[in-house]
Amino acid sequence: MNWLKEYFGDRAVEEEDAPEFIAYLMENLAPRTAKERLDLLDSAWLWGIEKGLLTDNPWADMRLRNPPHQKRKAFTKSIP
To answer: What is the rounded distance in angstroms from the CA atom of residue 39 to the CA atom of residue 48?
Structure first.
C-alpha cells in the first residue's frame, strides 16, 4: 500500500482525514480503482480492529460519489 504511505507519510490516519483522502483518490484514479482502494482500506482497518491493533475505522462510513454519467453520442455520419 505504497499509495497510502505516499499520501499520509508517517503520520497516523485520523477520521477527519478520510474525506480529503477520498477526494484525492477520486481526482487521481478511475472511479472503480478509487472504490477498490477504499474497500481495501476499510477491510484492513476492520482486520486491525479484530486483532486489537486499532480502535477506530476512519473508512467505515465513507462512500464514493458516483461520477456524473455522460450521454453517449450517436454516430452522426454514415459509412459509405
So the answer is: 14
Alpha helices in 1-80 (DSSP H): 2-8, 18-28, 31-50
Instruction: Encode pLDDT of 10-36 as tens digits.
Output: 998 999 999 999 999 999 999 889 999
The size of the chain, in residues, is: 80
- Which grid cell is 17? 482525514
Question: What CA–CA distance (Å, rounded) separates 65 from 46?
Answer: 22
Cell of 42: 476499510
Q: Is the pLDDT of residue 7 over 80?
A: yes
**66 vs 32: CA distance, rounded Å:** 10
In terms of C-beta density within 10 A (0-12 exposed, 13-18 middle, 19 or more buried), how is residue 72 classed? exposed
